[in-house]
Amino acid sequence: MLAGGDRLWQDYKRAILFTTVEPCPLCLGAVVMADIPHVIFGLHDNVVHSSRTIEANPYIRRHLKSYHGGILAEASAAIFARYDPKSLKYIQTGGS
After folding, report:
1. pLDDT digits (tens, 9 = 90+) for 24-80
2. Are strands 16-21 and 66-68 parallel, antiparallel or unpaired?
């Protein structure tokens, strides 16, 4: 029987990161370093704009096969609204 880490190592090219909000630049760097090729997130972060970082950086683009946002955005916003409404407003308004 394979442990979870062993399975991921053998099949990492199919790994997908699912998250409620767009990864910040630090997290995006961790995604690239871990060779996670697919990122799917709910809310676009209007503060960090990681999608702009991807567009501007060929190294990051080479590592990511897909990067999709807005998936289940309403459900993600509901989670933030319940637990951290100030952060939700910050993410949605770009810092205001």
Report:
1. 989 999 999 988 999 999 999 989 888 888 999 999 999 999 999 999 999 999 998
2. unpaired
Tell me which long-range contacts 35-40 makes (C-beta under 8 A, separation of at least 24).
35/63, 36/12, 37/12, 37/13, 37/63, 37/64, 37/65, 37/66, 38/14, 38/64, 38/65, 38/66, 38/67, 39/64, 39/66, 39/67, 39/68, 40/16, 40/66, 40/68, 40/69, 40/71
Q: What DSSP string describes the chain?
A: ---HHHHHHHTGGG-EEEEEEPPPHHHHHHHHHTT--EEEEEE--TTT-HHHHHHH-HHHHHH-SEEE--TTHHHHHHHHHHH-HHHHHHHHHT--
